[in-house]
Amino acid sequence: MKMIVGLGNPGQKYEATRHNVGFMVIDELAKRWGIASWRTRNEASVAEKRQAEQILLVKPLTYMNLSGVAVGELARWYKIAVTDIIVVFDDMDLATGRLRLRTTGSSGGHRGVESLLVHLPSADFFRVRVGIGRPPAGWQVVDHVLSRFTAEEEPLATDGIKRAAAAVECLLEQGINKAMNRYN
């Protein structure tokens, strides 16, 4: 079983914000796979894709900074190894729409990933980082991540979300190395 987690914040207020690109990628995968049935389990919105190997799509409902609470509980409930977890999240150090795939690493200052590192037994989950760009001069980080993409950025963000979904599909079908070679 694989678990694909998109990091974000629940609720309409945050729906289209930069910090929610993880949720947007999960929604794109659900759309591609024809999944419309979601349920709440262990403080997360969860959908399943049944195939040879079951895949869980997960959007934590604990808000970004506590994402690890929901993900850790789900991993234990379903007995999913950390190496079978793919986490999709926003990254300010990448230009809007750019991707970076990694097999392990630190949080890079991302509080959602920091929470995962606290609540999972290791840092060996796969990461799909989606660029949201740096804040404009004079902006606070929190204001930037909770803002919407500008009209100029919107096509780049949409393309990045679709490519991130394709990268997850590539990872599932062809493995980590091929996905990293194709999308990094």
Written description of the protein model:
The model has no long low-confidence stretch (mean pLDDT 96). A hairpin with a 5-residue loop joins strand 3 and strand 4. A seven-stranded mixed sheet has the order 2-3-4-1-5-7-6, with helices on both faces. The chain is of the alpha/beta class and 184 residues long. The chain is built from six helices and seven strands, in the order βαβββαββαβααα. The longest helix has 21 residues. The chain has a single domain, classed as Rossmann fold (3-Layer(aba) Sandwich), CATH 3.40.50. The protein starts with a strand and ends with a helix.
- SS elements, strand count: 7
- The value of Rg in angstroms is 15 Å
Strand order of the largest sheet: 2-3-4-1-5-7-6
User: What do the pLDDT scores average to?
Assistant: 96
Amino- and carboxy-terminal Cα gap: 25 Å
Helix content: 25-40%
Question: What is the topology?
Answer:
Elements: E1 2-6, H1 21-33, E2 39-41, E3 44-49, E4 55-60, H2 67-78, E5 85-91, E6 99-102, H3 111-119, E7 126-131, H4 141-145, H5 154-174, H6 176-183
Parallel strand pairs: 1-4, 1-5, 5-7
Antiparallel strand pairs: 2-3, 3-4, 6-7
What is the compact description of this entry?
The chain has helices at 21-33, 67-78, 111-119, 141-145, 154-174, 176-183; strands at 2-6, 39-41, 44-49, 55-60, 85-91, 99-102, 126-131. It is α/β, with parallel strands linked by helices and 184 residues long. Strand 2 and strand 3 (44-49) form a beta hairpin.
